[in-house]
Structures are given as C-alpha cells and as structure tokens.
Amino acid sequence: MVFKIARKHLCIPYVLFLLLFVIAPVIVILYYAFTNGEGQFTVANFLGFFTSGNTVGTLLYSLFIALIVTCVCVLLAYPVAYILSKMMGRKRSTLLLLFIIPMWINFTLRLTALKEVLSVIEGNLAYHPFLNTVIGQTYDFLPFMILPIYTTLCKIDKSYVEAASDLGASPAEVFFKVTLPLSMPGIISGIMMVFLPAMTNYVILDMMYNSTYIMGSLIGGYFSAYNWNQGSMISIVLLAIICVATLFTNKFTDGEEAADRGAVL
After folding, report:
1. Gap between the terminal Cα atoms of the chain
2. Residue 140: which domain range?
3. In whole angstroms, what is the distance from residue 194 CA to residue 216 CA?
4. How far is residue 195's CA from residue 72's CA, in Å, rounded to a whole number?
5. Integer-rounded Cα radius of gyration of the chain
6. Which residue from 29, 97, 110, 204 lies 20 to 30 Å from 176 (Cα-Cα)?
7. Contacts of 153 (CB under 8 A, 6+ apart)
8. Has residue 15 been placed in a domain?
9. Which pTM does this prediction carry?
10. CA–CA separation, 178 vs 161, rounded Å?
11. Which own/partner contact pairs does 219-225 have at CB distance under 8 Å and 24+ positions apart?
12. Is the Cβ–Cβ distance between 200 and 214 less than 8 Å?
C-alpha cells in the first residue's frame, strides 16, 4: 500500500513548531506583561517603564550602543564585502571562509580570546565600559553584516555597471549611483541582523567585565529575580520596537529597490 502525503500536510511540523515555541511563549509573556504579581490585569508595568528615568535611560543607552555598533559594522563590512564580490575563484572562497570560520567557534572562547588581546593593549581596553562593549559586539556581529552585503553585491547584474561606464560615468559615480543603491537591501538586512541583537546581548558585557546595563541586562535581571511581570513587559516593549523596525525597513527596502532599478534602467 502506498501512502500519499498531500503537500499541505508537509507544513504540519512547521505549524506545530510555531505554536509550541513561538506563539505559546509570546502568549505567556503577554499574560505576565499585562498582569501584576497577583494575576490581575494592569498597565502599570508599562506606565512605570516609560515614567522611570532609569529604564528610559537604559533604553536610550541601548539604542545608542546599538547604533554605534551597527555603524561600525557597516563601515567595516561594506569594503570587505565589496572586495570579496570582485574576487574570483579559489581566492574568494578562501577569504570568505576566513570570515565564516569564527562563527563556527564557541562564542565564549572567542570573547575570552578577545578579552585577553584587549587586556595587553595600552590603556587596558578590556576594562573600558564603552569601548569594550563596542569592540566586543562588533567582533561578534561583523560576519552577520558582511554576508548579506556580500550576497547582494554578488547578485547585482554586471550589465548595469557596464552600461553606466559606457555612458561616461566615472568609477566613483558608478559606485555611488549604481552599486551602492542596488546593494541597499543587503545593507538593510545586515542592519536588522546587528542593530536589534546589539540592544539586548548583555552576555558580551558580562564576559568583558562590563557593569553597564542595556535592555538585555534589565530583562535578565528581572527574570533572575523571578519578577516575570517586569521582565515580560520589557520584552514586549522590545518586541514592539522590532516589529516597527521590521515594517519600516521592509517598506524602505522595497521602495528603494524599485526606485533604484527604475533609475538605472
């Protein structure tokens, strides 16, 4: 007997995964975010967050740190991705592999090695609260910025560049008017993969002996103290920021890509 599986049945494992590990946890977090310690509905958690100077200050500082880390990653990643996209054959594969290999190494080992390197530099950067945060997060997230930009640059139709050159555009004009605009989807994708995690990844701060608080530190502190209501509330605030940022970047990417391709054509 031959059993035929309908195509729609193949989505059942995925649906179950979403229900158990995405939707159910979000429902639990929503419950705790809008209730107090006695299980009564309240919005006092959110009011307290946005009226407290400490929590708002932590949010603004987290945004600032994430912005700095993202900008540094873009500035470092774009030239690397651009050079890689221009290479051919084994040389490109070898250099690309060198940037991917650190992602295979344990996160703790990489940060421990970085901390030892920074500790021998003059000025002892390993214990500088701001610098070790930026350096540590940049070191950790840089591959996530390089790869989407590199992929987008490789997909750019070379005929656009050749056409611009044939029409008399200088190499600088070709880059700023053709290559850079067409690579914006990769840049936006990299920003999304770096900016949002940089707001919450407090593990780097802890391992670098940094006592500075970011949003992830607040969430971890509340849950460690079994204050699920405050921790869930901050998680919902971050989730809202992520949703708004995602909607904005999706619209920006779609509009930018359509406009750029129209301008090139």
Report:
1. 57
2. 54-217
3. 14
4. 11
5. 23
6. 97
7. 81, 82, 85, 179, 183, 186
8. no
9. 0.82
10. 7
11. none
12. yes
